[in-house]
Amino acid sequence: MAAADLLLNGVALTPDLSGALWWPGRRWLVVADLHLEKASSYARHGQMLPPYDTAATLARLAEVCRRLDPARVVCLGDSFHDRDAAARMSVDDGRRVAALTAARDWVWISGNHDPAPPEGWGGTVLADLAEGGLLFRHEAAAGPAAGEVSGHYHPKAAVRTRGGRLTARCFVSDGCRLILPAFGSLTGGLNVLDPAVADLLRPDFQVWLLGRDGVHRLPASRLAAEPRGLAALAP
Fold first, then answer.
1. Which of 2, 60, 82, 207 is 20 to 30 Å apart from 218, CA to CA?
2. Kind of pairing, strands 164-173 and 134-136?
3. What is the spatial distance between Cα 75 and Cα 223, in angstroms, rounded to a whole number?
4. Within a domain: residue 232?
5. Within a domain: residue 234?
6. In total, how many domains does the chain have?
7. Residues 20, 60, 207, CA angle at the centre, nearest 5°?
8. Which residue segment(s) compose the domain that 149 sits in?
9. For 8-22, how does the pLDDT look when each residue is reduced to its tens digit (9 = 90+)?
10. DSSP assignment letter at 85
11. Residue 1 maps to a domain
12. In b/e form, how buried is each residue of 172-197, taking b as 16+ CB within 10 angstroms?
């Protein structure tokens, strides 16, 4: 395998720089936590954010699909920020979603933000999906879960550098389970050393950090915790 590849329950997978996971053996593309229409949700509560997150996320997803040409796309839940997200989406963005789902086999895994993605947008809705030694779900389950692939936590990692500190989204795995970074353009992150993430994994876990020019594999021992007083932004 290449340096950036990972082995999960005996299955070779490739973390893509976009934040998507590529399963070459099945030609599956897996993404987590799109959170479409998050900005418009915040705007309804008086927190004004640039209203371009949905278009940006869909454009990035379309680019990865063009580049890798997957046979199946699996979205690991929280694809829509809330139950009313589809109603707030622009006509053009709705058409982009429909075009993506019509172009290939598409699976929406239910998340805590979107228990039932809206009807009429294409794709198949499932609570979870098992295939070839892997189990795809939104949130990691308590206890052992060999081959589990999930999202939900929006993992990020920090490393100390000569210039100070670098923090970026990451994949995190202990070889038994794998947690994907959030793919959405307007999503925060939770440091993988936070107990909410670290307690799910064996102590010798690794991260695949999304750098500017590539994906960098690092052991847990190289990582830095959040500075005191800096609250982690939970999903």
1. 60
2. unpaired
3. 28
4. no
5. no
6. 1
7. 30
8. 6-224
9. 999 999 999 999 999
10. H
11. no
12. bbbbbbbbbbbbbbbbebbbbbbebb
CATH number at residue 87: 3.60.21
pLDDT band at 229 (very low <50, low <70, confident <90, very high): low
- For the beta carbon of residue 139, count every other beta carbon within 10 angstroms: 19
**What is the number of alpha carbons within 13 Å of residue 214 lying toward its C-beta?**
7
Give me the sign of the Cα torsion angle 154, 202, 218, 68. Answer: negative
Q: Which residues pair with 191 in a beta bridge?
A: 156
- Strands 177-179 and 148-150, by their bridges, are parallel
Tell me how far apart the alpha carbons of residues 25 and 21 are, in angstroms, rounded to a whole number.
12
Residues 133-157 pLDDT 10s = 999 999 999 888 899 999 999 999 9
Say if CB 145 and CB 129 are below 8 A apart. no
Cα distance between residue 141 and residue 222, in whole Å: 26
